[in-house]
Amino acid sequence: MRWTGRPPSALRGRPDILASSSASRRSAGGSYPCPPWTRIRRCGTGRCGMSCDGRTAAAPAGPTVAALAALGPAVGPIRDEARSQGVDFVRRLFEEWASGANRFDRPGEIFLGVWRGDRLVGVGGLNRDPYAAGGDIGRVRHVYLLGAHRHLGLGTLLVTRLLREAEGHFRIVRLRAASPEAAAFYRRLGFAECADPAATHLIRVRPIP
Q1: Is 99 exposed, middle or buried (0-12, 13-18, 19+ CB in 10 A)?
Q2: pTM of this prediction exceeds 0.85
Protein backbone atom coordinates (compact mmCIF):
# COMPACT_ATOMS: atom_id res chain seq x y z
CA MET A 1 0.00 0.00 0.00
CA ARG A 2 1.64 3.21 -1.15
CA TRP A 3 0.57 6.79 -1.63
CA THR A 4 2.35 10.08 -2.19
CA GLY A 5 0.30 12.55 -0.16
CA ARG A 6 -2.52 12.41 2.33
CA PRO A 7 -3.90 8.87 2.67
CA PRO A 8 -7.18 8.13 0.91
CA SER A 9 -10.20 9.36 2.85
CA ALA A 10 -11.29 5.80 3.58
CA LEU A 11 -8.09 5.24 5.55
CA ARG A 12 -7.97 8.46 7.56
CA GLY A 13 -8.32 7.82 11.25
CA ARG A 14 -7.40 4.15 10.74
CA PRO A 15 -3.97 3.68 12.37
CA ASP A 16 -4.39 -0.08 12.16
CA ILE A 17 -4.41 0.12 8.35
CA LEU A 18 -1.97 2.98 8.01
CA ALA A 19 0.64 1.02 9.95
CA SER A 20 -0.28 -2.49 8.85
CA SER A 21 2.57 -3.00 6.42
CA SER A 22 5.35 -3.46 8.97
CA ALA A 23 5.52 -7.21 8.45
CA SER A 24 6.21 -6.76 4.75
CA ARG A 25 8.73 -4.01 5.56
CA ARG A 26 10.53 -6.37 7.92
CA SER A 27 10.65 -9.13 5.35
CA ALA A 28 12.02 -6.67 2.82
CA GLY A 29 14.58 -5.38 5.29
CA GLY A 30 13.05 -1.89 5.45
CA SER A 31 11.39 0.43 7.93
CA TYR A 32 10.40 4.05 8.06
CA PRO A 33 11.92 6.66 10.39
CA CYS A 34 9.61 9.28 8.83
CA PRO A 35 5.94 9.63 9.75
CA PRO A 36 4.22 6.64 8.13
CA TRP A 37 1.82 8.57 5.90
CA THR A 38 4.74 10.06 3.94
CA ARG A 39 5.58 6.78 2.22
CA ILE A 40 7.28 8.22 -0.87
CA ARG A 41 7.76 11.89 -0.13
CA ARG A 42 9.07 11.29 3.39
CA CYS A 43 8.49 13.95 5.99
CA GLY A 44 10.43 16.93 4.63
CA THR A 45 10.80 18.31 8.17
CA GLY A 46 14.30 17.12 9.01
CA ARG A 47 12.95 15.51 12.18
CA CYS A 48 13.25 11.96 10.99
CA GLY A 49 17.03 11.83 10.93
CA MET A 50 17.17 11.15 7.19
CA SER A 51 17.76 13.32 4.18
CA CYS A 52 14.24 14.12 3.02
CA ASP A 53 13.35 15.62 -0.33
CA GLY A 54 11.61 18.64 1.20
CA ARG A 55 8.10 17.84 -0.02
CA THR A 56 5.75 17.57 2.93
CA ALA A 57 2.54 15.60 3.01
CA ALA A 58 -0.46 16.30 5.20
CA ALA A 59 -0.63 14.23 8.37
CA PRO A 60 -3.66 12.05 9.09
CA ALA A 61 -6.08 13.21 11.75
CA GLY A 62 -5.69 10.21 14.05
CA PRO A 63 -2.62 8.70 15.73
CA THR A 64 -0.44 6.31 13.78
CA VAL A 65 2.05 3.66 14.80
CA ALA A 66 5.01 2.83 12.56
CA ALA A 67 8.45 1.25 12.72
CA LEU A 68 11.40 3.52 13.51
CA ALA A 69 14.74 2.84 11.85
CA ALA A 70 16.72 5.50 13.73
CA LEU A 71 16.65 7.60 16.87
CA GLY A 72 16.56 10.89 14.98
CA PRO A 73 15.72 14.39 16.23
CA ALA A 74 12.02 13.53 16.50
CA VAL A 75 12.83 11.40 19.56
CA GLY A 76 14.52 14.33 21.33
CA PRO A 77 11.49 15.48 23.36
CA ILE A 78 11.00 11.94 24.66
CA ARG A 79 14.64 11.68 25.69
CA ASP A 80 14.57 15.10 27.37
CA GLU A 81 11.35 14.55 29.32
CA ALA A 82 12.43 11.10 30.48
CA ARG A 83 15.80 12.46 31.58
CA SER A 84 14.16 15.24 33.60
CA GLN A 85 12.00 12.65 35.36
CA GLY A 86 14.84 10.20 35.98
CA VAL A 87 13.39 7.44 33.80
CA ASP A 88 16.38 5.15 33.54
CA PHE A 89 15.14 2.76 30.85
CA VAL A 90 14.90 5.57 28.29
CA ARG A 91 18.52 6.48 29.03
CA ARG A 92 19.47 2.84 28.43
CA LEU A 93 17.52 2.85 25.16
CA PHE A 94 19.66 5.69 23.79
CA GLU A 95 22.93 4.30 25.15
CA GLU A 96 22.34 0.81 23.77
CA TRP A 97 21.23 2.18 20.40
CA ALA A 98 24.33 4.38 20.16
CA SER A 99 26.65 1.50 21.05
CA GLY A 100 24.87 -0.94 18.75
CA ALA A 101 24.07 -3.25 21.65
CA ASN A 102 20.34 -3.12 20.92
CA ARG A 103 18.74 -1.63 17.81
CA PHE A 104 15.81 -4.05 17.63
CA ASP A 105 17.15 -5.50 14.39
CA ARG A 106 17.29 -9.23 15.08
CA PRO A 107 14.66 -11.61 13.65
CA GLY A 108 11.26 -10.93 15.17
CA GLU A 109 12.30 -7.61 16.72
CA ILE A 110 10.87 -4.19 15.97
CA PHE A 111 10.96 -0.65 17.39
CA LEU A 112 7.82 1.44 17.00
CA GLY A 113 6.87 5.08 17.33
CA VAL A 114 3.49 6.66 17.98
CA TRP A 115 2.83 9.79 15.92
CA ARG A 116 0.19 12.47 16.40
CA GLY A 117 0.34 14.58 13.30
CA ASP A 118 4.03 15.15 12.60
CA ARG A 119 5.04 14.80 16.26
CA LEU A 120 6.50 11.63 17.75
CA VAL A 121 4.85 11.22 21.16
CA GLY A 122 5.77 7.69 22.20
CA VAL A 123 8.06 4.75 21.55
CA GLY A 124 8.32 1.09 22.43
CA GLY A 125 10.11 -2.00 21.23
CA LEU A 126 9.99 -5.77 21.00
CA ASN A 127 13.16 -7.78 21.60
CA ARG A 128 14.01 -11.42 21.86
CA ASP A 129 14.08 -11.72 25.63
CA PRO A 130 17.76 -11.54 26.60
CA TYR A 131 16.95 -13.04 30.01
CA ALA A 132 15.30 -16.18 28.62
CA ALA A 133 17.11 -19.28 27.41
CA GLY A 134 14.82 -20.05 24.48
CA GLY A 135 14.37 -18.05 21.30
CA ASP A 136 10.57 -18.25 21.46
CA ILE A 137 10.16 -15.65 24.21
CA GLY A 138 9.89 -11.97 23.36
CA ARG A 139 10.14 -8.94 25.58
CA VAL A 140 8.34 -5.59 25.44
CA ARG A 141 10.88 -2.89 26.26
CA HIS A 142 11.33 0.85 26.62
CA VAL A 143 7.66 1.82 26.29
CA TYR A 144 7.36 5.55 26.96
CA LEU A 145 4.73 8.19 26.13
CA LEU A 146 5.12 11.91 26.63
CA GLY A 147 3.16 12.96 29.70
CA ALA A 148 0.81 15.26 27.80
CA HIS A 149 -0.28 12.36 25.57
CA ARG A 150 -1.08 9.74 28.21
CA HIS A 151 -4.54 8.43 29.12
CA LEU A 152 -5.65 8.84 25.51
CA GLY A 153 -5.43 5.20 24.44
CA LEU A 154 -2.05 5.65 22.75
CA GLY A 155 -0.25 3.27 25.10
CA THR A 156 -2.84 0.61 24.40
CA LEU A 157 -2.47 1.23 20.67
CA LEU A 158 1.31 0.86 20.90
CA VAL A 159 1.46 -2.27 23.07
CA THR A 160 -1.34 -3.97 21.14
CA ARG A 161 0.65 -3.40 17.96
CA LEU A 162 3.79 -4.80 19.57
CA LEU A 163 1.90 -7.94 20.57
CA ARG A 164 0.56 -8.29 17.04
CA GLU A 165 4.12 -8.02 15.73
CA ALA A 166 5.14 -10.79 18.15
CA GLU A 167 2.68 -13.27 16.63
CA GLY A 168 4.43 -15.86 14.54
CA HIS A 169 7.80 -15.02 16.08
CA PHE A 170 7.34 -15.73 19.78
CA ARG A 171 5.23 -17.95 22.00
CA ILE A 172 5.31 -15.74 25.10
CA VAL A 173 6.01 -12.05 25.58
CA ARG A 174 7.31 -10.82 28.90
CA LEU A 175 8.17 -7.46 30.45
CA ARG A 176 9.14 -5.73 33.66
CA ALA A 177 6.65 -3.10 34.81
CA ALA A 178 8.50 -0.06 36.16
CA SER A 179 5.76 1.11 38.52
CA PRO A 180 2.43 0.04 40.05
CA GLU A 181 0.65 2.20 37.47
CA ALA A 182 2.47 0.41 34.65
CA ALA A 183 1.63 -2.96 36.21
CA ALA A 184 -2.07 -2.07 36.29
CA PHE A 185 -1.91 -0.92 32.67
CA TYR A 186 -0.41 -4.20 31.48
CA ARG A 187 -2.91 -6.25 33.49
CA ARG A 188 -5.73 -4.42 31.69
CA LEU A 189 -4.18 -5.53 28.40
CA GLY A 190 -4.26 -9.17 29.45
CA PHE A 191 -0.78 -9.64 30.91
CA ALA A 192 -0.56 -11.92 33.95
CA GLU A 193 1.82 -11.49 36.85
CA CYS A 194 4.69 -13.96 36.93
CA ALA A 195 7.11 -15.06 39.62
CA ASP A 196 10.37 -14.62 37.75
CA PRO A 197 13.40 -12.53 38.79
CA ALA A 198 13.71 -11.18 35.23
CA ALA A 199 10.05 -10.24 34.57
CA THR A 200 6.91 -9.08 36.33
CA HIS A 201 4.31 -9.92 33.68
CA LEU A 202 3.79 -12.18 30.66
CA ILE A 203 1.23 -12.93 28.00
CA ARG A 204 0.86 -15.73 25.47
CA VAL A 205 0.62 -14.80 21.81
CA ARG A 206 -0.24 -16.72 18.66
CA PRO A 207 2.34 -19.52 18.51
CA ILE A 208 5.14 -19.86 16.01
CA PRO A 209 3.89 -21.94 13.02
Answers
A1: exposed
A2: no
